[in-house]
Amino acid sequence: MAEKMAIAKAINESLRHALERDPKVLIMGEDVGKLGGVFRVTDGLQKDFGESRVVDTPLAESGIVGTAIGLALRGYRPVVEIQFDGFVFPAYDQIVTQLAKMHARALGKVRMPVVVRIPYGGGIGAVEHHSESPEALFAHVAGLKVVTPSNASDAYWMMQQAIQSDDPVIFFEPKRRYWDKGEVTLPVRGSASGEAIPGPLHRARVAREGTDLTLVAYGPMVKLCLEAADAAAEEGRSLEVVDLRSISPLDFDTVQSSVEKTGRLVVVHEAPVFLGSGAEIAARITERCFYHLEAPVLRVGGYHAPYPPARLEEEYLPDLDRVLDAVDRSLAY
Fold first, then answer.
1. pLDDT band at 174, cuts 50/70/90?
2. In this structure, are residues 298 and 217 in contact, taking their beta carbons and an 8 Å threshold?
3. Is 130 tagged catalytic?
């Protein structure tokens, strides 16, 4: 059954299905219950499943994640929400020293099936600490899976897969895309949730075929790269767009296959270019595709500076002109 819905609604439906299917799934976070979350992603879930399954927590991110770790040790599958990206840092210690390390510390005897939902990125005119992109910080931590959907179908199914994972998953949700709509094929209620899963959680997808250059992006930047490919097509250029979907682990094979075909690569993300995820992609693809590359790998992203006030964020965020400029520079080699 296919339905057209916004990304926020797709996540809501996915959480609802998980709560119905497994009594060990719990949702926790600030204002996730009665309010339904500041973006209404959890709207209606507490009403339907009760306050013991959808829990409004104190404003204490470290406590939220620490409690989730304890619940996971007791056999539960907590899904916790960090209300905004910049609020995750009080919980960073719990995530990187406890959540990420517990499996290794216990020599494989303990699993940590915890999902940490983090709305991230800019473009909504928010105040300080509400528009950051800290995904590279978490991707650098062994023991964590880091994923981010760019469309409604992936938002639904990747959340299902994240909740089913026995390892901790940091689930970054592109808040500026919450209201973008797309087709989602929903499973029949009461059926096995895995029967319609489109593909592995950590496999990239080719969002648009092309021959002249590869654009690699994830989360909020995939839509921008598809727009760039449309604009380039008007000038007779064929750009391939790869949606990474997963930042750790990272599907280098799909990127490599694309670059071997096109000979050029531009990586786009909102996070600062300096030591961002694009740096690892550029280094690895240069190693793998040295004799296929017709130009150096280029990166487009944010600046190595604190995220600016809302009035200036459009100057900070990558836009169509900056992506197309990188395309021009690559094709000029």
1. very high
2. no
3. yes
